[in-house]
Amino acid sequence: MNDDLTSHFAEFLYNQGDRIGLLKQVLRQLGNPDADYPIIHICGTNGKGSTATMIAAILQQMGKRVGLFTSPFIGDITNSIQINRQAIPTDQFDKYLNRLKQLMTSFGDGQQELSEFEAMFVAAMQYFSDQQVDYVVLECGLGGELDATNAVKTTIYSIFTKIGMDHIGILGNTIEEIATTKSKIIRQGNTTIAAPNQRPEVLAVLKDEASHKAATFLDADAVQIDRQLTKATNVVYQVGHQSGHFQFGLPGDYQLENVRTVLLWLDDFQKKQHLSLDVSQLLTQALGKLDVPGRFETIHAQPTIIIDGAHNVDAITAFVGSVKHSFSSQSKLIITGFLKDKDYVDNVRLLAQIPNATFKLTQPANPERKLDERRLQTVFQNITGKIYPVFSDPIAALKASLKESSNHPDQLILVVGSFYLINPIRDYLIKTRSNSND
């Protein structure tokens, strides 16, 4: 989104007036593009982007034309809006936003405005309609009930990844309140799927809302898998009476939870569509070499640099588990930084459990919400008794880490925390690699 267009949309308007009512009016004015394709709606706290990407990849492998809307964006903002893994062209993105800007100036009394996220959502709905996609996989942004994506007319699936404590005070103050807010994306008579290992109180809320909406409720706890490490990671699965195995390319132990949800969706989808599929072959082709940017992503080879946008307690817990499982004995240098509205103290407490690790502390590239690196240093000192070096700029932290690792060729560099931290580091590494190849 270029600067001129950005200035016409507010940064954040969540819960300010009837946002859903306004967005429904806007979509109606545009001819209800969201009614032109069946929608699979993904909500939750962690794992939404990975689950959405996997489902989109499977549908694409079936020969479908698939629209995918995800957030936060990794790399260029246009990556949030994709068809068959290709980002919307910048000129088309600008065209939709310009059209929307003009519509809002003439809309009602001319005083209504949209946030950047709301504008991107509406642009995506139009783009997917104009491009005549077969399905849309739609990831919620911040919440559920009041999230911009909940302005769509209807959905065929409501899929809930792991729901945890995040955005406290905005979505609710307890896990039940947060789950209730998210549960409101469930539509009358659709199929609702819950990821495995949900907290009991979350599961109760989702089941109750599904029952109230006469929606079919499925729990991915029923899906059994076993990961076998061979030359290629092999996953053995059983869903109901169907079993098999497939190659699974996504690193990070937490992706096994997400893939159980995807397996349950696929089992239900093929039954409803009366499809006769070689499921194991389909899954290997779709997921065997799939990558999800910013999720335990190896972005650099020498030294090995892995980035992960884990920024809340559940996600950091999963990240720490994956690091311990895969790199327990290896020397690790970890660059980290958080937003000040996150539970950064508990995040630090968890990161401090990683063996053979030292840290470089920085701040995300978000002036309004960043946690000052010296405050983070104090938290680390209180928890670990050690004073780790601080950097006001993520790239400075990266350069210092690369310099240090040049004397330790086996050292692993991990970048974990806010997407406002991993995005600039990721962009820098990709551009550096591109320049060196020229």
Structural overview:
By secondary structure, this protein is of the alpha/beta class. The protein has two domains: 3-221, UDP-N-acetylmuramoyl-L-alanine:D-glutamate ligase; 297-437, Alpha-Beta Complex (Protein-Tyrosine Phosphatase, Chain A), CATH 3.90.190.20. 40% of the residues lie in helices and 17% in strands. A hairpin with a 2-residue loop joins strand 10 and strand 11 (242-247). The longest helix has 19 residues, at 419-437. The chain is globular. Residues 1-6 have low confidence and may be disordered. GO terms for molecular function: ATP binding; dihydrofolate synthase activity; metal ion binding; tetrahydrofolylpolyglutamate synthase activity. It holds the Pfam family Mur_ligase_M. Residues 294-419 form the Mur ligase C-terminal domain. InterPro entries: Folylpolyglutamate_synth, Mur-like_cat_sf, Mur_ligase_C, Mur_ligase_C_dom_sf, Mur_ligase_cen. It catalyses: (6S)-5,6,7,8-tetrahydrofolyl-(gamma-L-Glu)(n) + L-glutamate + ATP = (6S)-5,6,7,8-tetrahydrofolyl-(gamma-L-Glu)(n+1) + ADP + phosphate + H(+).
Please tell me how large the radius of gyration is.
22 Å
Number of alpha- plus pi-helical segments: 14
> Could you say what the CATH architecture of the largest domain is?
3-Layer(aba) Sandwich
What is the number of independent domains? 2
Relevant CATH superfamily of the largest domain:
Mur-like, catalytic domain
| CATH topology title of the largest domain | UDP-N-acetylmuramoyl-L-alanine:D-glutamate ligase
Distance between the terminal alpha carbons, to the nearest Å?
27 Å
Kindly name the structural category: alpha/beta
Low-pLDDT regions? 1-6
Largest sheet: 8 strands, mixed
Mean pLDDT across all amino acids: 90
Identify the overall geometry: globular
Please provide the ordered H/E string of secondary-structure elements. Answer: HHEHEEEHHEEHEHEEEEHHEEHEHEHHEH
Our estimate of the beta-strand percent is 15-25%
The count of DSSP E runs of length 2 or more, i.e. the number of strands, is 16
CATH class label of the largest domain: Alpha Beta
Strand order in space, largest sheet: 4-3-2-5-1-6-7-8
Q: What is the helix fraction of residues, given as a range?
A: 25-40%
